[in-house]
Amino acid sequence: MKIRLIEIAHARSGDKGDTGNVGVIARRPEYYSLLAKYLTVERVREHFRGICQGKVERFELPNLGALNFLLHETLGGGGTISLKNDAQGKTLSSVMLRMELEIEETLEL
Amino acid sequence: MKNSIRIASGQGFWGDLQTAPLDQVRKGPIDYMMMDFLAEVTMSILQKQKMKDPKLGYAKDLIPLFEEILPDVVNKNITVITNGGGVNPLACRDAIFAVAKKLGINGLKIGVVLGDDILNEIDSFTARGIVFDNMESDAKLASIRSNLISANVYFGAFPIVEALQQGAQIVITGRTTDTGLTLAPMIYEFGWQKNDWDKLAAGTVAGHILECGGQASGGNFSADWKSVPDLAHLGFPIAEARPDGRVVITKHENTGGLVSAATVKEQLLYEIGNPKNYITPDCIADFTSIQLKDLGSNRVEVSGVKGRAATETYKVSMAYFDGYTSFSTLTYAWPDALEKAKKADEILRTRLKDLNLSFDEIRTEYLGFDSCFGPLAKFSGEMNEVVMRIGVRSHDRNSVERFGKEIAPLILTGPPSVTGFAGGRPKPSDVIAYWPSLIPKTAVTPKVIVEEI
What is the CATH number of domain A2-102? Predict the structure, then answer.
């Protein structure tokens, strides 16, 4: 079935220089395995193409049912150098949660 | 030893909700209040203020704030810890002493942490072989040395602990880590040692939860923002800490907002890198060890935190001048709002090119369309209006200034139905860029001074 990430996760994002961080958290404990399985570095890199110019890193926090992504070269130089309206990456969480995923499992959302 | 202390978050950044520290000292019991004032480039702004007036260089908001809260702080025996001393903690202390005098308060002890400001010693450090390479880009300091504005070492919790041991009821620091402001009272009250890595990590995690104020208690909450009660009266978070390192995150009763496992998780993930290596001057905390238990009634227990030995270096936060920027906006209305805004951008860029101006970057975004989503923005039918936002950056001030003169003419010489140009020509602003680096811990020593009025 096709789902939107926002249906199974919530998120918060921020900045470290030119790198954006997006923490993605499972809405229910059982959804964490879906995040771990489908929200791969490749899928996230593909989704953020044109926004993230650098590498994508993924870290797992199973204890919180969460993944942390670092999106390098994403904020137009970051800090006061950046000319972006969202120089601090505050809305990268929304961009992430809008992602559509095709999953094998059947969920009742 | 107390078996529990309540540490309140009073401010998550300079300019945060002004009523938050008042509510924290008045709406329920607390033992400590921490207030974080310093973002990465704040020190450079304060350094500039100090260059103009040697009595400035700290968070001036602290003074009217202390006029309001000092009687509560003294009567209820609350200890206040803040890094709002900026680049001039001594002047900040003197201004607070003046407030105390005005209010007729005697016997108040204020501690100050000094030694983080190394701007005037940079060349002697480099002569001794400390390189200050940019820890993100590996660039050499020499490339920006002549434009350096500020340089501050991030100290941790232990200098604050020393001030508390000397009896300070208010502790004013310069560049101290946000987490150290919360960790320090736990070390002091519970007698934690410098190698109690798990406990130091537990206090550091609590500090990370408190350091952004209302972001842990229902503010900016993406899971279910509509369910958060009474955001207008959002209660800032409070950490109830215990000697074994367990912490309960909560907030005062009869305040708005929400403390739940979900709100705490969002804050835990905010602006972290590798969760196994959350590095502070005090320890390395492992965020993959954190266990949360939602106790209900706005209480979340944080336990199980593991830590490792601190590194041999302090982080140094430097800021340097790096050219100029300017921004402007114009609003285009239906019909063809986006098409018109894009045409205006094209006209403007042609005119800037004809003038032979020099820019490092010109960026145009369309607010209401793509400023958050970039190339992922989907065009879904007719737009009522769109805001063209254009920014330029250059090391040539004249080019940036001239850009400001090219905006208003677009209204009468470009596409129709445009408004929203107010406030005069946009002016060039200085770009203050950030330069993170490292220094051996042995090279600098924090200095603690406690005095009584």
Answer: 3.30.70
Comparing C-alpha atoms, which of B170, B176, B195 is closest to residue B100? B170
Candidate from A63, A77, A81 with C-beta closest to B291 = A63
Interface contact A50-B374, CB threshold 8 A: yes
CB contacts of A10 in chain B (<8 Å) are: 222-224, 262, 266
pTM (two decimals): 0.96
Q: Which residues does chain A have within 8 Å of residue B224's beta carbon, measured at their own beta carbons?
A: 10
pLDDT, one tens digit per residue, over B187-233 is: 999 999 999 999 999 999 999 999 999 999 999 999 999 999 999 99
Whole-number Å distance between alpha carbons of B334 and B325: 30
Residue contact B288–A63, C-beta within 8 A: yes
Mean pLDDT over the full length of chain B:
96
E strands, B32-103, are 32-35, 79-82
**Residues B271, A15: C-beta atoms closer than 8 Å:** yes
Cα separations in angstroms, B189 against A45, B156, B160, B257, B306: 47, 17, 12, 29, 20
Counting one residue from A and one from B, how many pairs have CB atoms under 8 Å apart? Answer: 125
Closest CA to B100 of B11, B169, B8: B169
The Cα A63–Cα A40 span in angstroms is 18
Nearest CA in chain B to A67: B269
Q: How far apart are the first and last CA of chain A?
A: 11
Domains and CATH numbers, chain B: 5-116+154-311 (no CATH), 325-431 (3.30.70)
Q: Which of B210, B284, B374, B266 is nearest to A22 (CA)?
A: B266
Nearest in space to A19 (alpha carbons), one of A47, A53, A64:
A53
Asked if B262 lies within 8 A of A85 by C-beta distance, the reply is no
Q: Are B34 and B180 in contact (CB under 8 A)?
A: no
* Contacts (Cβ under 8 Å, ≥6 apart) of B424: none
A14 contacts chain B (CB < 8 A): yes
Nearest to A50 among B220, B276, B375 (CB): B375
Beta bridge partners of B150: B319
Quote the pLDDT of residue B453: 85
**Residues from chain A contacting residue B375 (CB–CB below 8 Å):** 49-51
The pLDDT value given to residue B237: 98
| Residues recorded for chain A | 109
